[in-house]
Amino acid sequence: MSSDPTLTKLPAAPNRRRRADFVIIGALLLLFLAGLVGLAAATGWEETVAQFLRLSLAQIVLLLGLSLANYMMRALRWHVFARRLGLVVSPAQSLRHYLGGFAMSVTPGRVGELVRMRWLRRETGWSVERTAPLALVDRASDLAVMALILALAVSLTAGGMGGGILVAGLALCVAYIATRPRLIAAMVTFGYRLTGRLPRLFARARIAARSLHRFGQPRVLLAALGLGCAGWFAEGYAFHLLLGWMGSEIGLWKAVGIFVFATLAGGLTGTPGGVGGAEAAMIALLTLEGVPMEVSVPATAVIRVTTLWFALAIGIAAFPLAEKLSTRGRDALENR
């Protein structure tokens, strides 16, 4: 009895797809573990736990709640950007994509967060080059917002953050460049002419760059800036509260400025989660404000746990759900 040769070939494609999924997830896991090792090495766990024990449950919940407010504001901004780009996604989809991406926030250079593009490709069918502007404008929006908050903090305080304006200006310049379609396209073209290689990759980069014009409308920019400012200020305010609870009140805007400056400084280092650079900048600036080391070091550790580590924990919890639902979305898309 002869068999239809097409029947023997059908299982091969799903098997290859599953193997590809395992390879991708394995690579992301390795990136995640590399960032986690660096993060653990830079944070004094014993000291952090001791400080947590001194805080009341209500205080810890408030710190975590302010951080959660930041994540929710930025997730809403992500949804605004996604809809503006033309993606047909629900608020629930955007929320799980954004929060799930936090699981990879401690990968080197945060490249692991590109997993969001993978989930969008599965659920909407959009290629990575079409959704890449979403990640770019989200990061640029963060830079612009933090630069504005830092500039305001420096203008409202005296001393202690002499490099604040320089860092704010640098962040604004990067944010401006990252959202200029013609400028990005010109840089991509120059890169291709310089190397003469990978024409398909550079072509995809040009396609992504052209999509940036969708985010240039004033109402979109104002919504993004408003949500971003509210979110990042919430975490800066949490740092202000924490310092007060530890007996080192330095003023609201100084605390907010130090938190934002340190976060930006950590990001510029390119280390996973800004580890090392952020902590060093935060402790140094607190010392300049007269905060003793016995307060500045544990305060830095605690605020990093309630912001970076908390985001990581949320991401780890959301990642399996986002992965599972994106797989279902891909299957449903293929069966249409």
UniProtKB/TrEMBL annotation:
It is found in: Cell membrane. NCBIfam families: flippase-like domain (TIGR00374). It holds the Pfam family LPG_synthase_TM. Keywords: Cell membrane, Membrane, Transmembrane, Transmembrane helix. It is a multi-pass membrane protein. It comes from Albidovulum sediminicola. This is Flippase-like domain-containing protein. InterPro entries: L-PG_synthase/AglD. The chain crosses the membrane at residues 21-45, 51-73, 144-177, 220-243, 301-322. The keyword RNA-binding does not apply.
